[in-house]
Amino acid sequence: MTTSGDPDDVVADFQPVTVQGVLDDGTEVTVMDAQADHDVLLRQWFRAPVVVMGAHLGGREQGYASVRFCLDDPRWWTHLIDPARGPGCGEVGSVRVYADDDAQVWFEHRARSPLTRREYDRLVIDPVLTLAKLATQSRLHVTALEFRVADERNVEDTRWLPAIGRIIDSGTAGSYPDAVIPTQELTLEVFSDWIGVSRDLDGLASAVADPVRGAIQAQALTMCAVAEGLHRRLCPVTSRFPGLSGNARDRVRRAARTAGAEMLEQKGFDREVSEKALNEALSHFDELPYRRRLEQLQDSAECAVPEIVADFSDWPVQVCSARNQLAHQAYTSDASSDGLLLLLIAVDYSLSWVLRTVLLRRAGIPDEVVLRCFDNDARYGLYRANVRSYLDSGEGRGPEPCCR
């Protein structure tokens, strides 16, 4: 088992399963997505992301009528507690906030139709946590999580089942700095609408709220990719020729491929190889280039914060240059030079603020609120000052090649 087990069997044994059990005190538990492992004495044990207490439940397809969870810092969410006000309603369901007898502040979401645990995590919990992080610019956590099972009874008659696991940090952080955007701007309606918006973002907003950390090359390249991904999802029109039909695009592509292949064939190149190469090159000829996507993201951010990238000589060109140097090894200088590293730091820094601004606007935060809050926040001022220091050194600017 330890040295010569069949790889397929080993992988099969490691596939997630549902384990139902009973604790010594008689409490029923369900271990979700448990993966088997063993110690050096071949004693089996399981690891799992979530354990639900108080009931024996089904596996991944188990449906839940509602979920409730707590976020730290609780003081940021008390303004949402208003018994006289109804819940915020959206496409996925309704959300309300209340305090229990122990003064815990709970976000409760009731779906229009039952959702699985993973669907609740992807469609509700992660979007709420992400918007909270975007506004506060703090690494918040889910500190408590409970589910109500969907069955034939009235939802109110079913009990809450607490969940424990690695996605829950029950130790609330002691304190956080002041939020960039006051949490009073995050109303139930804003949260509810954002849950609907997030369905189309495929989790990319969380990469802005909680960026990848590591080598600056990896950070910058990741943020460059996230920028393109968010643009594609936030801007429905991404064609250079919006009025061109699919048939017309095919005819243009076919004509260009034929003409190019004939010229290459006359130069002695294989016709079939030439057509394949041209077909691949022309497959996205009508899509907006990366630089144009950056320009549109910049325009959106500048609607709220006009000087957000004012310290760059040409922000889209410099971001595009940094991306191309990393992704395509199209280096305009030594790959390890201080100039390139300073440019990457400035690009990574700026993309974080630009994308944050675009997402806050999409969440419904008014432009004047975003501008006022940024101008009054030391972190935004430090971002501007740091970028100026990187670029004004002369090394961070670098040449400005033609970018696509």
Characterization of the model:
This protein has 12 helices and 10 strands. The protein is α+β, with helices and mostly antiparallel strands. Strands 1, 2, 3, 4, 5, 6, 7, 8, 9 and 10 form a 10-stranded antiparallel sheet that branches. It is globular and about 80 Å long. The protein starts with 6 loop residues before the first helix and ends in a 12-residue tail after the last helix.
What portion of residues belong to β-strands?
Answer: 15-25%
What spatial form do the alpha-carbon principal axes imply?
A: globular
From N to C, what is the helix and strand string? Answer: HEEEEEEEEHEEHHHHHHHHHH
Q: Averaging pLDDT over every residue, what do you get?
A: 87
Query: Termini distance?
Result: 53 Å
Helix-strand makeup class: alpha+beta
What are the segments in which pLDDT stays under 50 over at least 5 consecutive residues?
Answer: 395-402
Tell me the number of helical segments per DSSP (H or I, 4 or more residues long): 12
Got a strand count? 10
Q: What summary fits the major beta sheet?
A: 10 strands, antiparallel
Radius of gyration (Å): 26 Å
Helical fraction: 40-55%
In short:
The protein has 404 residues and is an alpha+beta fold.
Essential attributes:
disordered C terminus, alpha+beta, ten-stranded antiparallel β-sheet
Break the fold down into its secondary structure elements and pairings.
Blueprint: H1 7-13, E1 17-22, E2 28-38, E3 44-47, E4 50-53, E5 64-71, E6 88-89, E7 93-99, E8 105-115, H2 117-136, E9 142-149, E10 161-165, H3 188-198, H4 204-209, H5 216-234, H6 246-266, H7 271-282, H8 290-304, H9 315-327, H10 338-362, H11 367-375, H12 378-392
Antiparallel strand pairs: 1-2, 2-3, 2-4, 4-10, 5-8, 5-9, 6-7, 7-8, 9-10
Helix pairs in contact: 2-3, 5-8, 5-9, 5-10, 6-7, 8-9, 8-10, 9-10, 10-12
